[in-house]
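Postdoc handover notes: sequence design on the structure in folder B. Input tokens:
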């Protein structure tokens, strides 16, 4: 079975190399390791060297860290390492954080996101976008950018924005939240399989199993998507893997 976990924070896993071995055993053919700041982006690049052809790295700064980095420094770092990455991500906006209420903080997030979109354009890399509570702005700033593609990861925004995301030609990724979150279930139901990736966002906590996730759990996502769409798990795995290979220009599993 072809199966790719398209969004993992390897740095957050207690035993990343063990988790990768378990993912291989579970039939996961590859993982996209996103970066959340400069340190974890470096970690993703290093993990890709340790696991060639299996871990595919991203460079990004998560909006949660928008106040902890210098925008110029982040952009320079991403620019200098872009040739080693398959994606610029995780990047984006998140207006749900308590610290993100003031308009100048949101402006700072948008400046960081825009700066990293510049890097993606300059190096012709796709982007992995975080858009919680900022769905419209995240799309607005991306739209018209000359990037080869984008995935709105763990999208659970309103369906009218989802339709704009799909109309613009971008992908959406499903997570294990498709098991319990009504908003995310609605998004999965509405998104054609041909435009969907699957992920775990490891180590995000699996509330229905009361434990942290790891990449082998992408099978839970596949099963939830298959149930919501009334198709076989095999089809979800194959089509989402093909989509990930296309978006991130990965070698076929
Ligand atoms: Zn993430």
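Designed sequence:
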């Amino acid at each position: 079975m072809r199966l790719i976990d398209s969004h993992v924070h390897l740095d957050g896993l207690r035993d990343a190399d063990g988790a990768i071995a378990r993912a291989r055993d579970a039939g996961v053919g590859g993982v996209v390791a996103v970066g959340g700041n400069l340190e974890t982006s470096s970690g993703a690049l290093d993990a890709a060297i340790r696991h060639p052809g299996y871990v595919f790295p991203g460079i990004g700064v998560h909006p949660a860290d928008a106040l902890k980095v210098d925008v110029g420094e982040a952009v320079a770092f991403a620019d200098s390492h872009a040739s080693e990455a398959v994606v610029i991500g995780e990047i984006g906006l998140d207006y749900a954080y308590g610290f993100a209420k003031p308009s100048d903080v949101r402006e700072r997030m948008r400046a960081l996101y825009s700066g990293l979109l510049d890097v993606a354009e300059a190096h012709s890399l796709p982007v992995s976008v975080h858009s919680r509570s900022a769905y419209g702005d995240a799309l607005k700033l991306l739209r018209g950018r000359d990037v080869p593609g984008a995935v709105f990861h763990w999208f659970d925004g309103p369906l009218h924005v989802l339709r704009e995301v799909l109309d613009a030609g971008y992908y959406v990724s499903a997570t294990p939240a498709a098991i319990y979150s009504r908003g995310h279930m609605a998004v999965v139901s509405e998104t054609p399989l041909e435009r969907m990736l699957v992920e775990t966002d490891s180590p995000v906590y699996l509330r229905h199993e009361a434990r942290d996730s790891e990449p082998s759990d992408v099978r839970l996502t596949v099963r939830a998507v298959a149930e919501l769409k009334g198709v076989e798990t095999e089809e979800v795995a194959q089509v989402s893997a093909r989509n990930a290979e296309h978006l991130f220009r990965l070698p076929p599993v």
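Context for whoever picks this up: The longest strand covers residues 87-92. Don't rerun without checking with the PI first.
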